[in-house]
Design goal:
Mean pLDDT: 96
Shape: elongated
Order of helices and strands: HHHEEEHEHEEEEEHEEEHEEHEHEH
Largest sheet: 8 strands, mixed
Distance between the termini: 33 Å
Strand content: 15-25%
Oligomer: single chain
CATH topology of the largest domain: Aminopeptidase
Bound molecules: zinc ion
Strand order of the largest sheet: 1-2-4-3-5-16-6-15
CATH superfamily of the largest domain: Zn peptidases
Number of strands: 16
Number of helices: 10
Length: 396
């Protein structure tokens, strides 16, 4: 059980029954990226019950609302993501997804419930909240490069009034439940994607000398891409290149004309991101040329590096330390090579992306696993984090 708790934690615990009900409802009806219509309707209903006037869109499942739009203080935006995953649930939760092959396996049901909880607390706090609070319920975080943050930004989610600070959080089993993880600077990776088509000479596999073998060239490219990481780059600046798909051929005795490779590239610095792209393009061309094969490379930029503002993060560590006690805050020892489209908000506005502890004793269930089940305590802590962060950032 938790030892210390500030006023926001106490207030959040009082509304736990409501947060529990929201979470159960979101969890039972998970919806994939850009299909979050029922989820949107539930959010809209609850926000209206709070006396707010949510904005919805014909062609986009996001929901936006503002508390205290006319207030003079700094504008704080709080963001929760909405989408579920194509996973069949096998968790120990007392409620379950009603749809096989759909599950809130990344905790976005918890994120939305925490944000509704924080909204409830901030609405009740009335004029004690000095500035406007923008609530961003964002669809499609899991969509990779076409995630919901980009289209939400073009719809003005950080404007009118202009947002000064943005705060988001994500549950994580790596931090014990009841704790909050934080980190300054680059915290999550940029995620880019490549598709390589190798074109050789198709034909009978018994006569390989008649032209370049696309399979062999593809295999050499896979090997060679790993040396981009291990020999082409400074080892203290992390880079991941992973080939996750390789397709070619129809029968054991036919050499295919083409082989396709697809993979992901993770980096933690903008300069490194550019450099690795060039290294990969050059390496692929070089390997193919040396074998007389031709290649086409499509390189797609995904989410940028997620960089937490050092001054805002420091302020929040102080604010959350007052609420929870310093011993409940943990500095994350290293950045993650995972990616998050919260990075796109942080490119526009200073803020921070916190880790909401969801770890419980026993064998760890990772994010996206069918057994992932953040404990109920995350609802209380998560709502208190967002409410305390908002009040703290608006206090000076
Ligand atoms: Zn996820
Ligand atoms: Zn997630």
């Amino acid at each position: 059980m938790l030892r210390s708790s500030g006023p926001w934690t106490t207030a959040a615990r009082r509304i736990l029954p409501a947060m529990r009900a929201w979470r159960k409802s979101f969890h039972e009806e998970p919806e994939l990226a850009y299909e979050e219509r029922k989820t949107r309707d539930k959010l809209v209903r609850t926000l209206r019950e709070l006396g707010l006037t949510p904005t919805v869109y014909d062609d986009f499942t996001g929901v936006l609302a503002t508390i205290g739009a006319g207030r003079a203080g700094p504008v704080v935006a709080l963001r929760a993501d909405m989408d579920a995953l194509p996973v069949t649930e096998a968790s120990s939760l007392p409620f379950h997804s009603a749809t096989p092959g759909r599950m809130h396996a990344c905790g976005h049901d918890v994120h939305m419930s925490c944000l509704l909880g924080a909204a409830t607390l901030l609405v009740r706090a009335g004029d004690k909240v000095r500035g406007p609070v923008r609530l961003i319920f964002q669809p499609a975080e899991e969509e990779g490069e076409t995630g919901g943050a980009g289209p939400f930004l073009t719809r003005g989610c950080l404007e009118s009034p202009t947002v000064d600070f943005v705060v988001g959080q994500h549950v994580t089993p790596e931090v014990p439940a009841g704790m909050v993880g934080w980190r300054k600077g680059p915290t999550m990776a940029a995620a880019d994607r490549f598709r390589i088509v190798v074109r050789g000479h198709g034909g009978h596999a018994a006569y390989p000398h008649r032209g370049p073998d696309a399979i062999l060239v593809a295999a050499e490219i896979v090997q060679s891409l790993q040396s981009v990481v291990s020999r082409g780059r400074d080892p203290v600046d992390p880079v991941v290149v992973s080939v996750g798909m390789i397709h070619g051929g129809t029968r054991p005795n036919i050499l295919p004309e083409t082989v396709e490779l697809e993979g992901t590239v993770r980096t933690l610095r903008a300069e490194t991101r550019d450099e690795v792209e060039q290294l990969i393009l050059r390496r692929v061309r070089h390997v193919a040329k040396s074998q007389g094969a031709s290649t086409r490379v499509d390189y797609h930029r995904g989410y940028p590096v997620l960089t937490n503002s050092p001054p805002v993060t420091e302020r929040l560590v102080g604010i959350l330390g007052e609420e929870f006690g310093d011993d409940r805050l943990v500095e994350l020892p290293a950045p993650s090579m995972g990616a998050e489209d919260f990075a796109r908000y942080l490119e526009r506005v200073p803020g921070t992306f916190l880790r909401l502890g969801a770890g419980v004793p026993g064998p760890p269930a990772t994010l996206h696993s069918p057994t992932f089940a953040p404990p109920e305590e995350t609802l209380v802590i998560g709502a208190a984090v967002l409410a305390a962060a908002t009040m703290g950032l608006q206090s000076r």
